Amino acid sequence: MNTLYVDLDGTLIATDSLQESLLQLARVEPRALFSLPLWLLRGRAAFKQEVASRVTLDAETLPYRPEVIELVRRARADGRRTVLATAADGRLARAVAAHLGLFDAVLASDGERNLRGAGKRAAIEADAGGQPFTYAGNGPVDLSVWRGAEAAVVVSRSDALARRAAELTTVAARIVPPRPSLRRCLYGMRLHQWLKNVLIFLPLMPVLHELTQPILFHAALAFLAFGLMASGIYVLNDLLDLESDRRHPRKRLRPFASGEITASTGLRMAGLLCAASLGLSIALLPTAFVSVLLFYMALTTAYSLFLKRRAVVDVFTLAGLYTVRVAAGAAATGLPLSFWILSFSMFIFLSLALAKRYVELSGSVQEVTRMKRDRGYHPVDLPFVLCAGVAAGQMAALLLGLYLHDQEMLARYEDPEYLWVLIPVFLFWTMRIWLKAIRGALHDDPVVFAARDWVSRLALGIGAAALWMAD
């Protein structure tokens, strides 16, 4: 009876296992990336084997295509033999086959043979023993296999590929993966996180009555440039966190973790976004801003690669990344960077970063296990995180009070007494954030939560009114 051979990358799973393995290698053993050219000189099969010997993708969390799995199940129900035939290394292929329990055999690269294109066709024909077979694939490289097949299953959105397959053999079925919508692509860029870049405008607050059009223009350009850079780094961060995100009940639905957007597309997105940010900055903004942007790029990349897996170091890095945004606003506009604003920013954002970790650490058993594995926090750290976070928030309130008592600052306002309203409002808001965290009601990033929370928006409105009345 006709045997069904099924490709892995892009066919059975909505991703490329080699690309994901390289991303995981960059995360867990970045120094090994320097050895990649040497491994490649030994051939692609040996290259894949070297990578597979250092990282292991979790077969249980890979983004499988349900339509292809159903196709394999129907073939088995009809009494047909099913074989996983892939150019991926045999370690991963066997793990996938064991997890699914749907394949009678596995054909894969083994360190010497690279089962791709003509090599795969030869292996399949040898395994089939001269009997007719059906092959399910997804790309132009599979045309050489379809040339020798009795029938083809085309898993692709490309009409051209389907036509070329039909010229070589009978197309028994075609599975068209859904195209990611613009909305999902924008979500992958995390545009909602651009809200954090409002901090760029913070250095403008003490001089609201002295603002000029050039200052506002440069601040707006800095906001855009930082947003593009942040989106590029968020995309890279999601690609490095694919396996971790797939174990998370909500993050597994993100465009990259779910396989809606491939890793290769994500890397191109990250590169284009970062390049656009740097190009805009170099062309239209001061050199000082470009320097701050490059520092942000380096720090956030370091955070994505290894700093976020170091307990305490991670929250200080997050607080620093927020504070860098404030410094970027000053660098873009040429306004002085106040010691008080920098100190206040560091403490409040340290408090918010700890609040985020507190919520994660007090979550489900699965979430706590992930925190121990991926972030370096243990369940016993919960009281420490709570105390440190609340203390940092209170210290931020104290610094705000000292700043409002600074004579140089007071001289800028006609009625500075209205500014004292900011202290109780800020204290209330900080304590409410922590109360929400303790009650398990802080489900998002604290900054994003504040943007969606009507009480936080009311507090912001009261603060803005106080500033307006003091001016």
Radius of gyration: 27 Å
Q: Tally the helices: what do you get?
A: 21
> Which strand order do you get reading across the main beta sheet?
3-2-1-4-5-6
Straight-line N-to-C gap: 85 Å
Profile the largest sheet. Answer: 6 strands, parallel
In total, the number of strands is 6
Q: Write down the secondary-structure element order.
A: EHHHHEHEHEHEHEHHHHHHHHHHHHH
The gist of it:
The chain has 471 residues and is an alpha/beta fold. The protein has helices spanning 17-28, 36-41, 44-54, 66-77, 90-100, 118-128, 143-146, 159-168, 182-188, 213-240, 242-246, 263-284, 287-305, 313-333, 339-361, 365-374, 382-404, 407-410, 422-438, 446-452, 454-470, and strands at 3-6, 82-89, 105-109, 133-137, 151-155, 170-175.
How would you sum up this structure, described in words?
- With 471 residues, the chain is an alpha/beta fold.
- The protein is 59% helix and 7% strand.
- The chain has 21 helices and six strands.
- The chain has helices at 17-28, 36-41, 44-54, 66-77, 90-100, 118-128, 143-146, 159-168, 182-188, 213-240, 242-246, 263-284, 287-305, 313-333, 339-361, 365-374, 382-404, 407-410, 422-438, 446-452, 454-470, and strands spanning 3-6, 82-89, 105-109, 133-137, 151-155, 170-175.
- A six-stranded parallel beta sheet has the order 3-2-1-4-5-6, with helices on both faces.
- Helix 5 (90-100) links the parallel strand 2 (82-89) and strand 3.
- Helix 1 (17-28) crosses helix 3 and helix 14 (313-333) packs antiparallel against helix 15.
- The longest helix is centred in the middle third of the chain and has 28 residues, at 213-240.
- The chain is elongated.
- It starts with a strand and ends with a helix.
- The model has no long low-confidence stretch (mean pLDDT 90).
